[in-house]
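Give me structure tokens for this 209-residue protein.
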Amino acid sequence: MDVSHPIKCVIPSLDAHVLEVLAGTTRPLTGRQVYRLAGTGSDRGIRLVLHRLVRQGLAIAEDQGSSTLYWANRAHLAWPAVELLVGLRASLIEQMSSRVAGWDVPVLHASIFGSAARLDGDEQSDIDLLLVRPDAADDDTWNDQVTALRAWATEVTGNTCQVFDVTMSRFAEHVQADDPLVASWRRDGLHLGGSSIEALVRTARGGSR
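Here you go.
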């Protein structure tokens, strides 16, 4: 599944991007604005999709002066299905956070990083997780819950789930060595549970920054 645009696993066309744009606002948009927000396809291609969605009733069009404005028809019978598809990424994050919150060995920090966090991946991209655990965590229990999370993530998305699993001591070593990985975690990380990455970095630095 394209975790950045999961609607594409069901609608593998430019229509997916247009529906995401329309679902993301209640403000009427011109075709050019939809094109810019979609960030893909061509201006002509986007307008063709909009015309098709209007014919299907999923979008409404209204001429205003020299422009045509478009917005979602949320009263359409199919619109709840669109909302469900557009919300799959948020649902994945919510369910993953819930699973982490219920662990027997609490996580010090959990986040998604990499392309799944930056929204620039595709259906072939891994879901990369950073997990920081207490130094004294029970290894068997910890490993069991991490394995279960990886298996669940792959089952519900079809993507490989890669885990960067470190103890707090090892995390502190990465921070103190100014490892470029830490910068990517801080820049791109999508928080799932435990302390924030910034709080953990401050702890690793002895609270000095």
